[in-house]
């Protein structure tokens, strides 16, 4: 929750802006790492969720590695102090230049998503006199029961290597001397709150790795990906994701073989709740059937509601009046530039400050300059 002290400080800041509660981030990291330490798991933070330098620094200091999906993310992770041996790199379309960046850095693992990609990584590694450590990103054909745009583990999704491609992969291993198979990687989707999805994934992993072991390819590490969801409806009640249930389910259901290490790639669950998009009300427009709160923040600042019909809790930080029903919209010239329909907010007027909560993950990183709008700046609780 945003303190009264912070709200006072907001009065002098140009809106819209992102506000990060660093105490909450550090508390989240502390709980997360106490559990990964307890179970002996390794974690690589998914930079794509939020790559602000201060956020990365806190996460790196907490001891997490980095999960990257582009050459620039790999370079940023290295620059931000993440040790190369804790960096993993996934993505269906790694360019030659990006692969070379990661080879030069000497990362822990390329999470490979297709047979042709493995061949190219081998050839580029050979040309640089290196051996690339790889994991196969497997498509386990699991429905994560989340929004279709953030489901990644069904066989019709573009991600990963499907079981019917395993023979082809094995054929490659015979002829490629500059790759070393270290692990299997899985990531079935994002914002997953149904723990049975992770339970099912654990069972599928056991079945799928059986194929590799039987064919003489021992698997040194299993990477479970990210995906744990957070509470967008009641962020104040659940500011920290349910890491305990999540790791409990995995510890109970994942059969870890002797000597094997287990890895995770959390993004949203680490940073979502510590971030808020703070905006000022420009106008309240009273229609015949609707009342519109028009903010100075738009879909270019936070695209999740427009792109995934995502719900974000909205709070009027400066009014305690009687509640009324509003649609909360932005200034961008698109009807999809809407943060919420029919929400109850205290009676709102021009100049009120509004916070859109749970915006720390996939908020600022997905901002764009549509309509030539400025990119919102970031402010941090320990610097106000
Ligand atoms: N690992 C891989 C390979 C991924 O593709 C992702 C996210 C993660 C880890 C981190 O997943 P998380 O723990 O954050 O669920 N923009 C969308 C989310 C896209 C997720 C993409 N992949 C949103 O705003 O909901």
From TrEMBL:
<keyword id="KW-0457">Lysine biosynthesis</keyword>
<dbReference type="InterPro" id="IPR029066">
    <property type="entry name" value="PLP-binding_barrel"/>
</dbReference>
<feature type="domain" description="Orn/DAP/Arg decarboxylase 2 N-terminal">
    <location>
        <begin position="41"/>
        <end position="272"/>
    </location>
</feature>
<dbReference type="InterPro" id="IPR002986">
    <property type="entry name" value="DAP_deCOOHase_LysA"/>
</dbReference>
<feature type="modified residue" description="N6-(pyridoxal phosphate)lysine">
    <location>
        <position position="48"/>
    </location>
</feature>
<feature type="active site" description="Proton donor">
    <location>
        <position position="333"/>
    </location>
</feature>
<keyword id="KW-0210">Decarboxylase</keyword>
<dbReference type="InterPro" id="IPR000183">
    <property type="entry name" value="Orn/DAP/Arg_de-COase"/>
</dbReference>
<dbReference type="InterPro" id="IPR009006">
    <property type="entry name" value="Ala_racemase/Decarboxylase_C"/>
</dbReference>
<feature type="domain" description="Orn/DAP/Arg decarboxylase 2 C-terminal">
    <location>
        <begin position="17"/>
        <end position="360"/>
    </location>
</feature>
<dbReference type="Pfam" id="PF02784">
    <property type="entry name" value="Orn_Arg_deC_N"/>
</dbReference>
<dbReference type="InterPro" id="IPR022643">
    <property type="entry name" value="De-COase2_C"/>
</dbReference>
<dbReference type="InterPro" id="IPR022653">
    <property type="entry name" value="De-COase2_pyr-phos_BS"/>
</dbReference>
<comment type="pathway">
    <text>Amino-acid biosynthesis; L-lysine biosynthesis via DAP pathway; L-lysine from DL-2,6-diaminopimelate: step 1/1.</text>
</comment>
<dbReference type="GO" id="GO:0009089">
    <property type="term" value="P:lysine biosynthetic process via diaminopimelate"/>
</dbReference>
<protein>
    <recommendedName>
        <fullName>Diaminopimelate decarboxylase</fullName>
        <ecNumber>4.1.1.20</ecNumber>
    </recommendedName>
</protein>
<keyword id="KW-0663">Pyridoxal phosphate</keyword>
<keyword id="KW-0028">Amino-acid biosynthesis</keyword>
<comment type="similarity">
    <text>Belongs to the Orn/Lys/Arg decarboxylase class-II family.</text>
</comment>
<dbReference type="GO" id="GO:0008836">
    <property type="term" value="F:diaminopimelate decarboxylase activity"/>
</dbReference>
<dbReference type="Pfam" id="PF00278">
    <property type="entry name" value="Orn_DAP_Arg_deC"/>
</dbReference>
<keyword id="KW-0456">Lyase</keyword>
<dbReference type="InterPro" id="IPR022644">
    <property type="entry name" value="De-COase2_N"/>
</dbReference>
């Amino acid at each position: 929750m945003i303190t009264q002290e912070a709200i006072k400080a907001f009065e002098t800041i140009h809106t819209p802006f992102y506000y990060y509660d660093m105490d909450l981030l550090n508390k989240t990291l502390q709980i997360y790492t106490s559990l990964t330490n307890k179970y002996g798991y390794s974690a690589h933070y998914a930079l794509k969720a939020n790559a602000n330098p201060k956020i990365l620094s806190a996460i790196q200091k907490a001891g997490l590695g980095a999960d990257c999906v582009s050459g620039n993310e790999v370079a940023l992770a290295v620059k931000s102090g993440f040790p190369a041996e804790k960096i993993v790199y996934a993505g269906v379309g790694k360019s030659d230049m990006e692969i070379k960046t990661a080879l030069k850095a000497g990362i822990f693992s390329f999470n490979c998503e297709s047979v042709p990609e493995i061949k190219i990584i081998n050839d580029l590694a050979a040309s640089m006199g290196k051996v690339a450590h790889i994991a196969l990103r497997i498509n386990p054909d699991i429905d994560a029961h989340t929004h279709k745009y953030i489901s990644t583990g069904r066989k019709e999704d573009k991600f990963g290597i499907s079981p019917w491609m395993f023979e082809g992969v094995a054929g490659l291993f015979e002829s490629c001397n500059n790759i070393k198979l270290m692990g299997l990687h899985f990531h079935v989707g994002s914002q997953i709150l149904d723990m049975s999805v992770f339970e099912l994934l654990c069972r599928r992993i056991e079945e799928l790795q059986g194929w590799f072991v039987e064919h003489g390819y021992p698997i040194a590490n299993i990477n479970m990906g990210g995906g744990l969801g957070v509470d967008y409806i009641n962020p104040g009640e659940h500011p920290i994701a349910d890491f305990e249930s999540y790791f409990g389910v995995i510890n109970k259901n994942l059969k870890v073989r002797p000597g094997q290490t287990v890895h995770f790639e959390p993004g949203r669950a680490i940073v979502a709740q510590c971030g808020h998009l703070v905006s000022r009300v420009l106008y309240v427009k009273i229609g015949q059937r609707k009342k519109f709160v028009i903010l100075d923040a738009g879909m270019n600042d936070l695209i999740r509601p427009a792109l995934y019909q995502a719900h974000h809790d909205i709070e009027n930080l400066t009014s305690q009046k009687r509640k009324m029903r509003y649609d909360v919209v932005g200034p961008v010239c698109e009807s999809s530039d809407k943060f919420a329909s029919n929400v109850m907010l205290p009676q709102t007027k021009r100049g009120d400050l509004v916070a859109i909560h749970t915006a720390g993950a996939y908020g600022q990183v997905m901002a764009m300059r549509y309509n030539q709008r400025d990119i919102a700046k970031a402010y941090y609780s320990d610097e106000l």
